[in-house]
Amino acid sequence: MSVPDSLPPPPLSLRLLPDWLAIALGWTLARWPWWLAVPAGRALGALMQRTMIARGRIAARNLALCFPERSESERDEMWRASFRSLGVSVFEFLRAWWGPLTPLDRRYEVLGLEHLQAAQKNGRGVILVSPHLTTLEISVRLLCRQVDLAGMYRPHESPALEWAVKRGRLRYTRAMYTRDELRPALRHLKTGGVLWFAPDQETRRGESVFVPFFGQPAWSLTSTHQLARLSGAAVLSLFYQRLADGSYRIEIGPPLENFPSADATADTARIMALMEQLIRRAPEQYLWVHDRFKRQMSSDQIPATPRDQ
User: Fold this and answer.
1) Could you read off the pLDDT of 91-149 as tens digits, one per residue?
2) How far is it, in rounded angstroms, from Cα 269 to Cα 282?
3) Which residue, among 185, 195, 280, has the nearest Cα to 239 in the 3D structure?
4) 210 is in which domain, residue-wise?
5) How many separate domains does the chain show?
6) In 119-201, at which residue ranges do the beta strands (DSSP E only) sit?
């Protein structure tokens, strides 16, 4: 898909020169042979593990909170594996934004397209929700080979990086909406479009509530409930995973039944339970360095999950 003419010109200033140099490096790395990028990504992950001290502590704390049933040695291996996956994901993100898909375009499968096609009958819009697995960006680009979709995202702080990444994403998505661009996102859904976003991270913007996530109180966006309620769109899960042989599995789940309800908190708890279920399928590929439990509340204030009711 070509980049639309409406994209503004790139922001150019001496202040942004370091950002543009970093983008140029990323553009170069996006074209490395894949047989070289994967081991380089693992090496980068090992380096990140040693240098990202604060983020490493956050990841270790998240794993201890989310997997108390695992032994310390098991969680330690998950922690190390998550950094290896994070390092590889840097090259996956760069290639998705700015590089060619070869040879990855022959090493993936998409399952569950029939669920999406059934949900789209009669021109109904579809919301695809997924967790922040490290394979997120490359999997969405691969999925766009078979599905015409738009995405919602959080803008980058750097104007140069925001422009370059959005330009890269618009090569394979229908549109990219920030979380503040609710009206155009709703128009897209009401006209039968497919909208993807990942609602599992904590954010300061948008309506949020405390609901359980891996048994912990997590400040969670009600966006899925709001978008489905206002647009009438179906909500489907999206899972993606980097397999041991280097290929990718992308899986679309069936539509959620009786969603949305009249209760935003109950719906958000249901979405977080779904995100947890997907993460447990490939926990070493989740973005554990995100400070998911920054805000806390007492456990007796946490609403029951759909499984408890």
Assistant:
1) 999 999 999 998 898 899 999 999 999 999 989 999 999 999 999 999 999 999 999 99
2) 21
3) 280
4) 14-301
5) 1
6) 126-129, 149-153, 176-178, 194-197
